[in-house]
Amino acid sequence: MNEPDESGFALNPQLSADTAFVADWRLSRVLLMDDARFPWLILVPRRAGLVELDDLASDEQAQLLGEINHAMALLREVAACDKLNVGALGNIVRQLHIHVVARAESDPAWPGPVWGSGGTIRYGQVAREALIEKLRR
Amino acid sequence: MNEPDESGFALNPQLSADTAFVADWRLSRVLLMDDARFPWLILVPRRAGLVELDDLASDEQAQLLGEINHAMALLREVAACDKLNVGALGNIVRQLHIHVVARAESDPAWPGPVWGSGGTIRYGQVAREALIEKLRR
Questions:
Q1: In this predicted complex, what is the ipTM?
Q2: How far apart, in whole angstroms, are the C-alpha atoms of residue B111 and residue A48?
Q3: How far is B2 from chain A (nearest CA, A)?
Q4: What is the pTM of this model?
Q5: Alpha-helix residue ranges (DSSP H) falling in chain A
């Protein structure tokens, strides 16, 4: 793909409030969901006006798929993980974003989905920064 | 991609029980979730032993992505749709399968996820067959 055209891209305020910045990969802004119950990354393609997966051109979809694979591998490195959940929902926040979540059979929402499971527990600052540091390595 | 190697592939019995067969696309078996509350397709790559998205080789992932796009387009044709939800969870059924769900702001789980929303309402036989017929066209 060509370099992404970021003009007009702005992160949705709700996504911004719920997450911490990890990195900008080639296409996606990578965010850590600030919920210590689940190791949970969110990928937001830095393109204005995207809502559905197929709003992305096919070369950018392929790039996104590669970045989803990379996020999956990263989560396996930093977290105990019985299953990975990948989802693009967007019922509440319409800006296209992909959830990649490491699930454990001992986590509080298992085997249900993390979305709508309530009871967010924010990371302490030290734990959050340590995890982000690991994710950036 | 090469022709998929279907040897050893068998549809998980739970998936089979919850769905109706629609078609075999190049990589995926396409199933209709038998829940009249949500127009809901499930794509199951016909390969043995897959659990995670990244268990698929990259060319097959690309094929799957194309088939997801096709499923999205199909659902838009047959259903009112305010948002599409795409997800690979697999916490309960481990065989790799991708959900593609047409969501409406008036549906009973909105804006929550369909997974774990309970209260499945099976299609009547006539309605199910009519919808499958539309999906095959």
A1: 0.96
A2: 23
A3: 18
A4: 0.96
A5: 13-18, 58-78, 125-136
